[in-house]
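Saturday, quiet lab. Running sequence design on the structure tokens for the scaffold JK sent over.
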């Protein structure tokens, strides 16, 4: 393990879900001392075994803190709880895929306390992040972004600064719209292949080499073929993202018909019990939905 950061102050990580854990692992692997916090402490145990330290308030112990939570509202609640640790000159990097208006308000609130806020949502699954394949989309003060280049480089293969608060979350929603629909297209294509007598594994192999290729085939294709729904990114998490996408589109006066259908498919999957499984379980919602429609038409 590199030791170039051995004597530096610790980097805080708040939120140890799938992504937060992967980011903490990346920082540990780059040689940073890491202080971790989660509302349920037992989630920290594997990271502590890897060398991380528990902190009751990383905001008090660290000048740079990575946040990875479910929604912007939860980010605000946690920061309110720990706000005694906020201090001037501190930089918070929020990797949560949140609401653009809420992240902007959060940045303003923190600036009043002389704390610098950077939106930094991650375009990657937890497993891609763990493997060093993530992209960080960053918004907020450019000077703070430049100060955090080393941390961002430890967590992500590439980073993009996209302007003021709100823009990083907006860009992440654009990314997730296309990514989610790529998964839907792949799932439907594999179901179609099997229905017309083509082996799904063979179909996937051909698709990966042809002009229909998407990265979703590398990340989710074999999982769909094998019905391996072990979680890299929860299906229910993507429901939250698609709702945010549709809300932002509505506010901009635009209709997104494919995303509206996608939301219905995701909600069907959640109702069928797939919400806590990997988002590639969308294939089951499509398959079971097709069966239901076929039964109705035959009746």
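Result came back. Writing it out in full:
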């Amino acid at each position: 393990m590199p030791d170039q950061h051995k004597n530096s102050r610790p980097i805080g990580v708040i939120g140890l879900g799938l992504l937060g854990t992967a980011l903490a692992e990346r920082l540990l692997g780059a040689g940073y001392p890491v202080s971790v916090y989660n509302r349920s402490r037992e989630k920290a145990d594997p990271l502590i075994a890897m060398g991380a330290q528990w902190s009751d308030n990383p905001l008090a112990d660290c000048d740079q803190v990575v946040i990875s939570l479910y929604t912007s509202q939860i980010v605000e609640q946690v920061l309110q709880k720990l706000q005694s640790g906020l201090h001037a000159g501190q930089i918070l990097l929020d990797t949560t895929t949140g609401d653009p208006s809420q992240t902007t308000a959060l940045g303003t609130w923190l600036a009043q306390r002389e704390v610098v806020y950077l939106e930094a949502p991650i375009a990657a699954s937890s497993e891609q992040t763990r493997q060093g394949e993530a992209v960080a989309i960053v918004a907020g003060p450019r000077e703070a972004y430049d100060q955090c280049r080393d941390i961002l480089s430890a967590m992500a293969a590439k980073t993009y600064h996209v302007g003021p608060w709100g823009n990083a979350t907006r860009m992440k929603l654009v990314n997730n719209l296309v990514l989610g629909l790529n998964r839907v297209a792949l799932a439907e294509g594999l179901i179609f292949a099997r229905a017309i007598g083509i082996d799904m594994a063979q179909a996937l192999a051909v698709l990966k080499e042809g002009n229909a290729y998407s990265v979703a085939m590398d990340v989710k294709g074999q999982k769909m073929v094998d019905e391996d729904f072990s979680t890299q990114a929860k299906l229910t998490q993507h429901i939250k993202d698609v709702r945010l996408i549709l809300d932002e589109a509505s506010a901009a006066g635009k209709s997104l018909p494919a995303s509206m259908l996608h939301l219905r498919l995701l909600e069907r999957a959640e109702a069928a019990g797939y919400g806590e499984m990997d988002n590639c379980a969308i294939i089951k919602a499509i398959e079971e939905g097709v069966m239901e429609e076929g039964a109705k038409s035959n009746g």
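Notes for JK: The longest strand covers residues 11-14. Residues 167-195 form the longest helix (29 residues). Ask whether to fix the surface positions before the next round.
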